[in-house]
Design a protein that fits this description.
Largest sheet: none
Structural class: mainly alpha
Order of helices and strands: HHHHHHHHHHHHHHHHHH
Strand content: under 5%
Helix content: 55-70%
Amino acid sequence: MELPQPNGALQGAPSPSLDLSHITRALDAIHDPRSPNSTRQDASAYLERAKRLPDAPQHGFALANDKSHSSAVRHYGLSLLEYSIRYRWEDHTPEQSDQLRFWVIELARNIHEQDPLYLRNKIAQLWVEIAKRIWAAEWMDMDELLVGFWHGSVAHKMLVLCVLETITEDFVNHEDHVAGLRGDDLGLACWEIFVPAAVFDEHSSSRGSTPEVRSRGDGWLRRLSEFLDQCLMHDALQDQQTHSCAIKALSTLRTATVWVSSTSMRDAQCVETYYRYLATPDVSLQTAAVEALTAFYERMYSHKVFDADTDLLEMIHYLLRSDNLAVLRDVYKWSLVDVYDLDHAKYVLSKKLTE
């Protein structure tokens, strides 16, 4: 397979070094099981070299944003942007960084339910990579953008949930070497956008002159709890996309359950939402609810748990109410499986309940 060497800067329309036909041939060679190893290696080397071109990001955006291209070509376009964000961010001028952020926002705005999930998730990952570097510094309206997307399609809701869950995992619950350099700023920003309005207002006086990154409204804890309750009230979970979105919302709440204050959880009625979903006759929703409840139980054993935390004690009492214990008992009995007629989903639920 002979491909041109991608070298030199690109100007205007894609140059021959990044011609779509060359990219398509290289991708076909990589994915074709009949391709010899030497051809596959040459194709991979060509695509990797292209990522280092000065104008690779603009071509990456053009490829990823054009829905007439195949999913493989669009994904490669996203990888061009990813390389520039993850490995060359410090080399960019402020104007170039702003342009990268604009392109990622545009890609997020233009997603559609028909786009493959892995493409949508990749865009969310690019969003998070930029947030690690400039959110709560140069980028102050991120939460406002996420709230706007939240009021859009189910696909946009899923993207928002992916971003929220990932920033919680990377910025708060686990160490990320890039986010760790800005740990205090990012942790405060996460707290600010998640907690209910009453909690935020109570602590706003202690923030000093730090600019707000929070959008108007009641924070993501309450916003997600209300969304989940609306899904139950309007029987929206029959729709598969909404069903998947509800599971993702429960997962996002689970990651926040580990670190938000008990007061925030009480005001947002998170635990009540978990129990309502535990009582649904759907094993995947029940499993997501159990995982969120497990995260809540585990926080009881943290070193700060009983430091005069009356809100936490109040929620523990809620957990021990007879009707809630009855829900746990009934779901556990229902989830028991016969070893000779194993239902894997019910077995997983039963195992998680015993934990």
